[in-house]
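Teaching assistant here, posting this on the class forum so everyone can see the example we discussed in section. The complex has two components, and the goal was to see what a joint structure prediction looks like when all of them are supplied at once.
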Amino acid sequence: MHIKVEHLCKRFGDFAAVDDVSFEVSDGSLVALLGPSGSGKSTILRILAGLESADSGQVWFDGEPATDLHARVRGVGFVFQHYALFRHLTVAQNIGFGLDVRRVEKSAVRKRVKELLALTGLSGLEQRYPSQLSGGQRQRVALARALAPEPKVLLLDEPFGAVDAKVREELRQWLRRLHDEVGVTSIFVTHDQEEAFSVSDRVLLVNHGRIEQNGTPMEILDDPATEFVARFVGEVNVFPATVRDDRAQSGALNVRIKGSAPSGLAHLVIRSYDLKLWREDPGVATVQRMVTFGDRVRVQALVDGAGPIIAHFPRRSSLLRGVEPGCRVQVEVTTARAYPAEASSLHPIAAT
Amino acid sequence: MLEHAHSRAAVAPTTIPASALHADARTAAWEGIARAAISGVVLLYLATVLVAPLVALASELTRVGLRAALNALLQPNALFALRMSLVLAAIAVTVNAVLGTLGALVIVRHRFIGRAWLSALADLPLAISPVMIGLSFLLLLGREGWLTPLFDHFGIKIMFAFPGLLIATLFVALPYTLREIVYVLEEIGTSEEEAAATLGASPWQIFWRVTLPNIRFGLAYGVLMTLSRSLGEFGAVLVLGGSISGQTQTATTFIHDAIEERQSAGAYGMAAVLAFTSVALLLTLSWAKRRRQAS
C-alpha cells in the first residue's frame, strides 16, 4: 500500500514530538524511521497506526484519507517494542486473535495460524504461553500475529530492541527475507543505524520531530543533507572552521570540501574512515592513543590548532608503519563536508 | 547496615591483612546475634498479638463445649445474624466488583480534571473510623437528617433497617477491589489493549478478551478482601443498623450482644465461625496473590 503523510504535527504539552512531517512510502517497500530516542519517530508510527491522533496534518492510504480512521479499521499490523503478546493466550490463540475478533470461521483461522507458524518457524510451539518463549520467539509470534489478518501495511516499533545482539542480527536478516516473501509495505522504527541501513530500502532520518533526510542508505551515507545526518551516521570528527570557496581551514588542517558550503564560519565534518595519516616530521598532528579492535586500529591524534581527531585503519595498514603514541604525523583528508555553523554551537565539538 | 558495608569493603582487596580478617569475623558474629535478637522480638510480638487471641478463643470454646456452642449457633436469632452477614457480604462483593472494575478503568485509563482527587477520595473509607462513617450517615439519614424527608416521602426506611446495614457495608468495603484493580491496570499498561485494537477488536471485545483476563487475579484478590472486610465490619453496622435481634443483627453485632448478655456459648461459637472463615479466606488470598504475581 502506498502511504502519504502531509504536514503532520503532534504536541505533548509544550513539546513538539512531530513537527511538520511529510513523506511518502511506495507500495511494497521496507522503510526505516531512524533517529535518536525522543526524536518523535515512534509517535509518527503510532499516528500511522491510529493509536495516536495528530494535531494537524493528513495521512493517506492508497490515496484514501486515513487521518480520522480508528485503529481497528485501518488494516494496519503493528508490532510493539515489548511485543505486547496476550499473556493469557497460547501462541496459536495469539496469532489467531485478529481473525477471531473478525468472526472468521474456526477452520479458516486454524489454517491461517498453521501457515504463519510455518512462515515464522514457530511450528511445534503453538500450545506454549508467551512466558515460556525466548525473546526472539516472542518477537516472531508478535510478527505472525500482526500478519495474520493480512494487513495492508506493517508497522514495527523498535522490533529488535529487546533481544540480545546475536539474535538481533538473525532477526534482521529474517525480517528482510520475510518482507521479500510477503511483500507487505513495512515501516520500522529504530535508533540503530546499522539496523536501518542493513534492512531497509529507504531511510527517513528523524530528529527533533522533523525529517532531516529521506533517501536510500547509500544516499544518506554519501550525501548527508545536514550536519545532524553527517554526525549521526558513523563515527565523525567535527571542527570549527572557516570556509572560503571549496576549502575549509581549521588550525593546521586545510581541506577540500565536497559539495558546497557558504563562505564563513562552518563546522567541518570528517568521517573517521575518510582520512589517512602517516609518520612525518614536522607534520600537523601528534598521536595520543592507539587502540586495536580485532582487525581495526583506532588512532587518536591532536591536530595543531584544531583539536583531537580520530581515524580508523585496517590493522595491517602500511600507513601505520612507525606510527606510535607521541610521534608526529601528517593528515590527509579524502572526503570532508562543511555545514554552516549556527551561532549557538561555535565551540569545538568532541567527535561522536 | 553500616557495619555490613564496612565488612564488604574489607573483603574486596585480593590480599587481606590478618587484622582485617579478625575484624571481619567479629562483625559477622555480632551480625548473627543481632539478627537472631531482632527476629526473636518480632516473632514474640506476632505471637502475642496474632496467635495468642486465637488460641485463647479455641481453648474457651473447648471449655464451654463444642456441643453447647453449636446449639447456641442453631438458635433462630444466631442463624438470622449469620445469614444477614452473608447476604450483606454477597451484595457488597457483587456491587464492588462491578463498580470497582469500572471505577479503576476510569481512573487509570482516562485523563480528566479531578482524577487525582477521585483516586484519593476512593481511599477515604480506609482512613476514617467506621463508627464515624456510621455517625455521618446518621446525620444524613437519621431522625433529623438532611435526606430523611425525601426517603420518608417515598416510605423508605433506611436507619435501623436493611438499607442502613447495606450502606454501611458497601461504604467500608468500597476501596478494596478498586485499589487492587487500579494497581494491576497500572502494572500491565495499555500495549496489549492497543495491540488488540490494531488487530480489529472492538472496545467490548478488548474488555472481555484482553483486559478482564489480565486483571482476573487482581479482581479475585479484591473480591476476597471485600468479602473478609464485609463479614468483619462492626462499627458502622452497629451505628446504622442498631443490632436489633432478628432484624438488623449481624454476626459481629451478635457476638457483641451475646457477650453483653453473658451468653458465652453463642459468642464463642459465632467468633469461631468468623475466625474459621477468616483463615480460609487468608489462605485463598495468599493463593490469589501468588497467581497475580505469577501472571
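For the discussion questions: Residues 1-13 of chain B have pLDDT under 50 and may be disordered. The two ends of chain B are 34 Å apart (CA to CA). Think about how each of these relates to the inputs above.
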